[in-house]
Structures are given as C-alpha cells and as structure tokens.
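Much of the work behind modern protein science is quiet bookkeeping, done one molecule at a time. The protein below has been through that process, and both of its lines are reproduced in full.


***
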Amino acid sequence: MNKEEWEEAYKNLNEAYRELSIQERDYKNGSNKKIREKAGKEMDYVKHRLTYLFKKYPEVYIMATGGEEASETHRIYIADELFNKRYIIGDIGNLLVSMDTKIKSFDT
C-alpha cells in the first residue's frame, strides 16, 4: 500500500474506533438493559465494518494480527481476540498508533 492508501485506511479505522468508543461506554455503563443491548448490537455492526476494512486493506489486517512473521494459526487467535468486545477498543487503538507510525515512515 502507498501512503495515501494507508491514510485512507487510518481515517476509516479511526471513524470505526470513535463509534466503538461511544458504543462501548453505553455497553458497559448503560443505565438499563435496553441501552446496553442496543449498544452491543451497534458494536457488532461496527465489527462488521472492521471486517470489511480488513478485507479491503489486507496489509492493515496483517499489521493488526501480528505482522508478516505471524503464522496463520497465530493470526486467527489474534483476530478472534481483536473482535472480542472486551479487548477491541484497546487493540484498535494500538493498531491506529502503529498505522500512524507507518504513515510517518513514508516521509523519511
């Protein structure tokens, strides 16, 4: 991928991250069951968007699941954990930091 593709992927992933952050708050701290369930469904929708983004940008998926050195088995375990509601915010946040570093590396 070139710098522009990485920037586009970063923008799309960051939008999903912001949406997940909002929904996670309601999922964990919603004042009633209905709010928590609705937020959980919205998080599932965003996870589907992430799946689409990873298919559109396979290099981002590789970065998110252990890099070039990771075996396919290892990648599957990491991806499973990545999409877990408990870990998704932290993992996507870490991925955004890695992507930002990658984007900045094009300038040097």
